[in-house]
Design a protein that fits this description.
alpha/beta; Rossmann fold; eight-stranded mixed sheet; about 45% helix
Length: about 300
């Protein structure tokens, strides 16, 4: 049996918040930071951490407001991705992490790009898994969201898809999937997400993050400038049945990035639920290559 690293589960007080995180590998100033999507948690990386931890120091926090981390104060952070990024940045600094590869997906994409644009010298590489940073990835399914962002009225809110329910949470995992792929998904994932999401106050917290996503869309030009200027090595991983983010997003990255690779899978929005082994192997190869180049440059 192949030896794998043990995953450690820890809590840390950061910027006035209790942050729960998973880590594997030997602590180092160079790391891989895995940021989960919504409404999930670091649980998404449960199969990746032991494999990648054999090759690098890996940290996967529960982003504040999700998983077992505390929810941020409305007064202090206003449930913004920029505010969340400041907490994650403070956590990395507290852990002594100076440079890192950042893995983003879904709603952690804005968090990761705030980290990258604020301190581009710290980001050694980008891994994007079904995360959007271009207009190309936002299809017709976002039309009602755009109307609400422009005019946040009760009428426009009522016209939004009814995704903040148990069935909506389940559909985040299974939406758009052929039966052969859907049956690979463990039901525990959406049941755990819904248990957290349905706790008092959490649905409104999640909705506030959805509303702040408009600010991420407004930053697409700034993100494009970051890509053009700094050109971090980039790997895009994509579940092709994702109903939320269009596969044209992959080509948008391809047009912008010089050091680029893409891997498209017969999967959905939560790709790691069905293709964790394949993704872990790709992350090991990408990490080894990026870290080798970083060592050669120092």
């Amino acid at each position: 049996m192949k030896h794998m690293a043990k995953t450690r589960h820890r809590d840390r007080e950061v910027a006035g918040l209790r942050v729960r995180y998973r880590e594997a590998g030997v602590p180092s100033s160079t790391a891989v930071v895995l940021l989960h999507g919504a409404p999930s948690s670091s649980y998404s990386f449960r199969e990746v951490l032991p494999v990648l931890g054999e090759h690098a120091y890996v940290v996967a926090p529960d982003i504040p407001g999700f998983g077992f981390s505390a929810s941020p104060s409305v007064d202090e952070y206003e449930y913004t991705y920029e505010g969340l990024s400041l907490v994650i940045e403070a956590m990395l600094e507290d852990l002594g992490i100076e440079r890192h590869i950042v893995f983003v997906t879904d709603y952690s994409t804005p968090v990761g790009y705030f980290l990258a644009t604020r301190h581009p010298e710290r980001v050694l590489g980008l891994v994007v898994q079904n995360g959007n940073a271009h207009e190309a990835g936002l299809g017709e399914g976002w039309d009602s969201a755009r109307r609400y962002w422009a005019e946040p009225t009760d009428e426009n809110r009522a016209a939004l898809p009814d995704w903040l329910t148990f069935e909506g949470t389940k559909d985040t995992y299974l939406g758009g999937l052929p039966e052969a792929v859907a049956e690979l998904h463990p039901a525990e994932s959406w049941h755990l997400d819904w248990e957290h999401l349905s706790s008092p106050g959490n649905i409104e917290v999640y909705f506030q993050f959805f509303y702040d996503y408009r600010m991420h869309v407004a930053r697409f030009g700034e993100i494009a400038a970051y890509h053009a200027t700094y050109q971090p090595p980039c790997m895009v991983l994509w579940g092709r049945h994702d109903p939320a983010f269009d596969i044209r997003e992959v080509l948008a990255y391809h047009r912008e990035m010089e050091t680029f690779q893409a891997h498209v899978f017969d999967g959905g929005h939560f790709l790691l639920e069905t293709h964790a082994a394949e993704v872990a192997d790709l992350l090991v190869a990408f990490t080894d290559d990026v870290f080798d180049h970083a060592r050669a440059d120092t």
